[in-house]
Design goal:
heterodimer; A: 143 residues; mainly alpha; 4 helices; 52% helix; elongated; B: 595 residues; alpha+beta; Beta-lactamase; five-stranded mixed sheet; 36% helix; 18% strand
Chain lengths: 143, 595
């Protein structure tokens, strides 16, 4: 009985040694991989910082202003004005077509129950009419 | 164990037969037994001591071996830990209140030379001078050949320049990694940001230190490695800053002004949304300070914070508010305003030698900007209470704004307070403060009389400062300032929908001879809007403006600073999300002043 026990425990030790050997190399391999990944993360972070800086540079107000001026024909961007403030109630929504059930009629072809999409610009003017923005008599002397 | 009897019967009997004392046998046996016990326990104790000794030896040698190992091994980065952003940036970014970048870092390279490894210094000098225009080929060649072993050539360079240096292909030219500060918005908010430069420099890295503005004032916070990953968020708003700088620049050019400054401040939180000072500079390429002449002429000069001027009539509201707070007058009290007024050998006159007298209500003193009326009011208040009020509202100390320039810009305050000083300080002469002081003081009035401390850091919480004016006095003061815009000296500032309230100030600049220059003025308009519930304070200051569209050149604030401020409010109020209001009927107690 005893010799069998000795042989078994010897084999167990050998097995464990082999396992430890493999684990050791696997760990080292993983650490090396991680080092590479971390280098990559660092360089990506660096690139990200640079791209953020470039984004900020390309979006600097001075450049955007120049671009808005240069592309005025297409974009028609103007500074926001006080007269452009309005209430939601002042928006002229298209009138909803009556639901088919209420009138007993069938909705005409091409008109679904949903509101049609708004295609034209919606005219909104706030409580402050644009006319009040006009120059007052005193302003005339000053350009 | 076999126990030896102490009195073995056989020996006792034989001893008795021999007539010996059997007790001696017992004693002998007892002695032997005790000796055996002693030997045994000694052995055991010795064994224990030895074991303990070995245990200690093992423990100490383990610790010693570990310490030796730790001391002898090369240091290594902890590879198993996750890296954060702090490893890549040595200085925190600066952003505006919406997170848009104002200052960040960029990886670049410095160029240095090791002339001993250099193959052809003459050619290298020529080629480097061609790449970097500021280098001189002859000087560089002399330096490369005078026997030194190390030479810095460039602190930073662009990737294109680096590529060209690579193409020279000389082994004596080497690159060291550098982190440089970048301000992507150029001159925008330049005076707030200041600038940065390199401190201690090594081949592998260099220290980036702030040289001015908030970069220097908060250098420790920006360099703190624990906070390097968190950007420093300022209260500035990039959009507003850009709009105001543009409008201010246009106004400055149209009015031929030497310089201009504007401050837009939230009256509840004290956050400065815009701090503009023109002319500006590029913090990426910060110019050198002037070696001679007036430092105020340099673009580095921050007029909004460092520009300590006599701000003129804008101070009148403080005198009036103080008098109302002390209960001496109400807005309707009639005050002697008969001009000109003689005090000893001095004469106090009104603008263009007018006379608003003989009596003027307190409200109309502000609306008409009466020097004489304010002077008389100041005499009612008295020197001590006047000085105490100005101290309380922050006009005696440097502003606590987070800029390195701020503590140096202390207001110029009279040392003695004779009657004439009390009178002139009441309308803003003989006392000089910066536009920032004025903005903070107006914000205090606009905030219902609770003191507001200006800050450049995003906080977003209303300040809970000491109360300086009662709510009623503050409301009355704001109503008077609204009157100035409705039918006083600042009618051009009446932006529809935003109920601007404010006060103009025109101060002549002191000259070197000790007098005042009539054609060199500082024009200021301090305003708040909307008047029914003030949210923002705007101070616009123009240095030496002149309005020339009329027959005679006009230099009063009403014709210079006010229209610029009005244009700014018209543009930024919608950007601030302020909905225009249709003004209600005149507030109670508001009386028409024009006959």
């Amino acid at each position: 009985m005893r010799p069998v026990l000795y042989v078994l425990s010897f084999m167990l030790v050998m097995g464990l040694a082999f396992w430890a050997y493999r684990e050791n190399y696997a760990t080292q391999h993983q650490l090396k991989d991680m080092g590479k990944l971390q280098d990559e993360i660092a360089s990506l972070r660096e690139a990200l910082t640079l791209q953020r800086a470039e984004w900020a540079y390309l979006n600097r107000p001075e450049r955007l202003r120049d671009l808005a001026t240069a592309n005025f024909d297409r974009l028609g961007l103007l500074p926001l004005e006080a007269a452009q403030f309005g209430a939601a109630a002042e928006v002229t929504y298209p009138v909803a077509s009556p639901a088919p059930g209420e009138t007993g009629e069938v909705a005409p072809e091409g008109l679904s129950e949903d509101l049609p999409a708004i295609t034209d610009p919606v005219e909104v003017s706030g409580a402050l009419a644009p006319e009040t923005q006009a120059a007052k008599p005193g302003d005339k002397e000053f350009p | 164990m076999i126990r030896t009897p102490l009195r073995p019967l056989a020996r006792i009997l034989s001893a008795r037969q021999k007539g010996e004392n059997p007790d001696s046998i017992e004693r002998e046996n007892l002695r032997l037994r005790h000796e055996a016990i002693r030997d045994k326990s000694r052995l055991r104790s010795e064994g224990r001591l030895l074991f303990l000794g070995l245990g200690f030896l093992a423990a100490f040698s383990t610790i010693g071996a570990r310490m030796g190992l730790l001391a002898a091994t090369e240091p290594m980065e902890p590879r198993a830990a996750a890296t954060g952003a702090e490893i890549t940036a040595q200085r925190a970014d600066i952003t505006d209140r919406n997170g848009r970048i104002l200052a960040t870092n960029m990886q670049t390279y410095a160029l240095y030379a090791q002339p001993k490894d250099m193959v052809d210094p003459v050619r290298v000098s020529k080629e480097l001078a061609a790449i970097f225009p500021e280098l001189d080929a002859a000087t560089l060649e002399r330096r490369l050949t005078d026997g030194r072993s190390f030479l810095w050539i460039r602190k930073v360079m662009s990737p294109e320049q680096m590529q060209k240096v690579h193409e020279i292909g000389d082994p004596g030219l080497l690159f060291g990694p550098r982190e440089m500060r970048l301000y992507p918005n150029g001159t925008l908010a330049a005076h707030v940001l200041g600038g940065a430069s390199f401190g201690a420099e090594g081949v592998q890295s260099a220290e980036v230190i702030g040289t001015a503005g908030i970069e220097k004032a908060l250098d420790a916070r920006l360099r703190d490695p624990a906070q390097a990953g968190t950007p420093l968020q300022l209260s500035l708003d990039l959009t507003l800053q850009a709009s105001i700088e543009e409008l201010l620049g246009t106004g400055m050019n149209m009015l031929n002004a030497k310089g201009a400054a504007a401050i837009l401040m939230d009256v509840h939180t004290g956050e400065i949304l815009t701090l503009a000072s023109l002319p500006a500079f590029d913090p990426n390429d910060r110019p050198n300070p002037l070696v001679k002449g007036d430092a105020g002429d340099s673009p580095l000069f921050n007029r909004a914070v460092q520009g300590v001027y006599e701000l003129g009539s804008t101070f009148k509201i403080f005198t009036v508010a103080n008098a109302m707070q002390l209960g001496l007058v109400t807005p309707e009290t009639m005050i002697d305003a008969n001009a000109p007024m003689r005090v000893g050998r001095f004469t106090i006159k009104e603008f263009q030698n007018k006379n608003y007298g003989p009596k003027l209500s307190v409200e109309n003193i502000i609306v008409k900007s009466s020097n004489v009326g304010t002077a008389n009011l100041a005499m009612l208040v008295g020197a001590e209470r006047q000085a105490a009020f100005m101290q309380a509202i922050g006009l005696f100390d440097a502003t606590p704004v987070e800029l390195v320039e701020a503590p140096g810009a202390k207001p110029i305050v009279p040392k003695k307070w004779p009657d004439i000083t009390v009178m002139t300080t009441a309308y803003g002469h003989g006392i000089a403060a910066s536009p920032m002081h004025l903005a903070a003081a107006y914000a205090t009035i606009a905030n219902g009389g609770v003191k507001v401390t200006p800050t450049l850091l995003r906080g977003g919480v209303p300040q809970n400062g000491p109360r300086i004016l009662s709510q009623q006095v503050a409301t009355d003061a704001i109503r008077m300032l609204r009157g100035v815009v409705q039918h006083g000296t600042a009618t051009l500032a009446d932006v529809p929908g935003y109920m601007v309230a404010g006060k103009t100030g025109t101060a002549e600049k002191p000259n070197k001879a000790g007098g005042y220059d009539t054609d060199k003025v500082v024009n200021t308009f301090a305003s708040m809007f909307p008047a029914n519930d003030p949210k923002y304070v705007l101070v616009v200051t123009l240095d030496e403006p002149v309005e020339t569209t009329g027959d005679t050149p006009r230099r009063t604030a009403g014709w210079t600073a006010v229209p610029v401020a009005a244009e700014i409010i018209r543009r930024v109020a919608p950007l601030l999300g302020l909905r225009p209001q249709v003004e209600p009927a005149p507030l109670d107690g508001l009386t028409a002043v024009s006959n």
